[in-house]
Amino acid sequence: MVEMRHWPLTSLELVTPRLRLHVPDAAQLDALAGLAAAGVHDPGVQPFTVGWTDGEPDVVARRVLQYAWGTWARWSEQDWSLWLAVSLDGAVIGSQELSGHEFAVRREVTTGSWLGRGFHGKGLGTEMRAAVLHFAFAGLGARHAVSGAYVDNAASLGVSRKLGYRDDGVEHHAVRGTDATLQRLRLNREDWETHRSIDVRVDGLDACLPLFGLPADE
């Protein structure tokens, strides 16, 4: 990604022992779109409330591109969504998102992610979520992180439990025309600190703080 003085998120980078999380450049974004088009979950189930993966491959790929561009276009200090590419050994393997609404006041973030199917079951989902949780709690001063997964999504729920999230009630949604139960999850700062087990390095944060509604010396 070419560094942009007026959009310092292009220089933001989260690094774990195996992964690099970063704003994708055009080629990386196109590769992510192709990865999503090839499949990110068993087609027999739909783990997302918004069924963006239901469609022909070209349609799914365009949805990824449009979603990424939309997060950048809609960004404000009061309502932001940091959509990052996740790279392993130089190749993009999925995306990790961290969102905040009135974050400077509420100090609460929401996470969401996906991985190409060939990268499931290797602990990478845990590692990339740990990266953005470190960014949120240690970098931005969050007090809470929330997430959710449908009750039949054992892999996602397992990641949350491993990282210290606690159950936070349920919701019911219509997914593919049927009732689906979503388990809400919440992680507070104390539980995050207790369950930390992955080293994370954050580069380029200081210049980005005003974009999150925080003073530069936060």
UniProtKB/TrEMBL annotation:
Name of this chain's protein: GNAT family N-acetyltransferase
Taxonomic lineage of the native organism: Bacteria, Bacillati, Actinomycetota, Actinomycetes, Catenulisporales
Chain ranges of the N-acetyltransferase domain: 43-188
Classification via SUPFAM superfamilies: Acyl-CoA N-acyltransferases (Nat)
Gene Ontology CC terms: cytoplasm
GO function terms (MF aspect): protein N-terminal-serine acetyltransferase activity; protein-N-terminal-alanine acetyltransferase activity
InterPro entries: Acyl_CoA_acyltransferase (IPR016181), GNAT_dom (IPR000182), Ribosomal_N-acetyltransferase (IPR051908)
Origin species: Actinospica durhamensis
